[in-house]
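INTERNAL AUDIT FORM
Audit reference: QA-55
Scope: verify that the stored structure record matches its stored sequence.
Auditor: D.O.
Record contents follow.
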Amino acid sequence: MRGSRRTSTAAVAAALTVGTLAVLLTACGATGGTGTPTAGQAGTGSVPSSGSPEDVTVPTGASLGLVFTPSEGSRTEVFPGLTLTLPATAREDTGYQAQGTAPGRAFRLGAAGQNLPAVEVVSLGAGAGSLSSVSWTNEKLMAADPAVTNLRRAVETWPGASEAVAMSWTQKVGEGVDASTLDAVMMWVRAESGDAFRVAAYVPTGTLDGSDALATVLTTELGSPVAG
């Protein structure tokens, strides 16, 4: 029973992750296609039905090398308990709505009229389950998509986090003349309070290193910001 409950939690969180990606990419102009999983597709993914999820879900690969890095910009408490430093180019996408019931916010970091690069933040709350299990389910779903390549997932160490897992990938989205390719980094972090969050950067392929989107993810701070 305990294992089934964790599996169910992971499946729901996975649906939120890839479903939210579909929403975000649709807002960016990628309207479906083989590279854009939908929430319905996400719900059909298989997850372990017996045994201990921890035995198979904890990443064993090398760290992605994500390190907390302060930067200049506007420190913004995106959700209670999570603060990002947003660059001057950041503008919130007020039309964005995260898939499912988890609240989310999206910020576009390019010039006016450009939807990428972008940063997405979702508040998963305290009931998200093991972040290794949540991210493992997403990894399996995305690995089955031929539009996704260069998929990596690893345990990270993050200031103030009791758990941290990150995943990176390259993904083709859209079809025909509307097709494009993006690179992404997604990090799940759980604060000592128990609240979990997902922070992701999406950029045109080949531009991740040195991008404002990745730099913003690396400013993720857990806990209430210090006044002053």
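Auditor finding: record pair retrieved intact. The chain has a mean pLDDT of 78.
Action required: none
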